[in-house]
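Protocol step 4 of 5: obtain the predicted structure for the target chain.
Materials: sequence only (see below). No template structures provided, no constraints applied. The aim of this step is simply to have a reference model before the mutagenesis design in step 5. Sequence pasted as it appears in the construct record:
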Amino acid sequence: MKVFPDDASCKHYLADLKWHNGFECSKCGHDSEHLRKDHSCFCYKCQHVECATAGTLFHRVKFGLHKAFCIAFEMSTSGKGASSIQMDKYFGIRQGSAWFFMQKVRKAIKGSRKWPLSELVHIEEFVVGGQEKIKNGRSYGTKKTKVIEGLSLAKSGE
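Step 4 output (structure tokens):
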């Protein structure tokens, strides 16, 4: 919520990810563009306007990018999974819209299995936020941040 406080910050983030190596028009392939205030790109050659969300999970989302980012975050961090009914209650969106978007996220996660981690894989889980007083084991009712890190080590020369 602090990193992406509104739809504009989410769109700015997507634009930076999408065009970090420069813009190439999806219609004509031309690379001369004008980045507009709404974080879309205008092609000077064919006058095509490409939105930062085009070709992503967030394209044509009906309830705002900020809520979509929050739903994707909830899905990736909740241990038991998240339901569209919960997202309806948390974010005030229609359950059907939440379900449809969550299916897109699940499909994207499933598609990432094309590049699985292999060989020797190290996984580390830790909590950022300091030690608490008189608490042993895992504590979930705090304002700490849980971090999970994975690293795939390949043989040298690969």
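Step 4 remarks: The radius of gyration is 20 Å. The helical segments are 7-18, 65-77, 84-91, 95-111.
Proceed to step 5.
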